[in-house]
Amino acid sequence: MSILLEDAREMVTDNLDAGISCPCCGQYARRYRRKMRSEIAYFLLWLVKKSRQNPDEWIDVRGIDVRGGDYAKASHWGLAFQRPNGDKSKRTSGLWMPSLLGEQFVDHKVKIPSHVYLYNNEVVGWSDESIGIVDALGCKFDYEELMSNQTTAQI
């Protein structure tokens, strides 16, 4: 069976929320809906506090007791950013800094979207619902919610 490239693109795009294997290359493609969770909010609180103690310095994340790398998802909301890695023997620099938005979020000055939509680890949209830092600290990880085949909002 021969499939046109345009048809393949449309097929993948139409099935991103449920997930699909690309008919051209076989790679699995899915748009993920990620929630702002307590682990990310806790990391951001810690990062802002450390940053205020050491202004204009990159903060080493080895000083926090957050495991699994979930803290890195703060970058998807633009709340923090990681220093580019100059050492090719390491996967990442491990050094972070909060953004102005991240500080404003911690200080209750702004709310952010409760969910970010990711495709190929790139932001492709946001939820309409907004939350503050206190709300985010109360959100726990729900594996079933993440992996469900629910239809997401238009993005």
Notes on the protein architecture:
By secondary structure, the chain is of the alpha+beta class. The chain has a domain of 102 residues. 28% of the residues lie in helices and 21% in strands. The chain is built from five helices and ten strands; from the N terminus they run αβββαβββαββββαα. The strands form four sheets. Strands 3-8-9 form a three-stranded antiparallel β-sheet, with no helix packed on it. Strand 8 and strand 9 form a beta hairpin. The longest helix is centred in the N-terminal third of the chain and has 16 residues. 19% of the residues are buried. The C terminus is likely disordered.
The biggest beta sheet reads:
3 strands, antiparallel
Cα(first) to Cα(last) distance is: 32 Å
Overall strand count = 10
N-to-C SSE string, H for helix and E for strand:
HEEEHEEEHEEEEHH
Structural class computed from helices and strand pairing = alpha+beta
Average of per-residue pLDDT values = 84
| Poorly predicted runs | 151-155
Number of helices: 5
What proportion strand?
Answer: 15-25%
